[in-house]
Amino acid sequence: PEWGLLPSEDAVVFIDNHDTQRTSGNNILTYKDPKLYKMAVAFMLAWSYGFPRIMSSFAFQKSDTGPPHDNKQNILSVPVKEDQTCDSGWVCEHRWRQISNMVRFRNIVRGNGLLYN
């Protein structure tokens, strides 16, 4: 059935972005609910609709919190741990094993008739 969606080649799909993460009162799925977030991103990447965009963010407590920085307001480099996740206030959802594996899956099956846009 027709859902009234944009044609796949014209659609950008995402679970969250820097604005929706910080909109209080919304029931937006973010890194703060990691199990559901990983499942939603996996579904998005497995589904053959649109061009997916994956969030890579930093932790925040208030909506106007900026990225990790030093006392001179210089943004800190992103430290990557042995397990390839980030540290020091960086979330780096794109590095989470479940998400990076689904990106790899999507790239492998693209063009094989299994996944298409």
TrEMBL record:
Superkingdom of the organism of origin: Eukaryota
Protein's name according to its UniProt entry: Alpha-amylase
InterPro entries in alphabetical order: GH
Coiled coil feature spans: none
Family: Belongs to the glycosyl hydrolase 13 family.
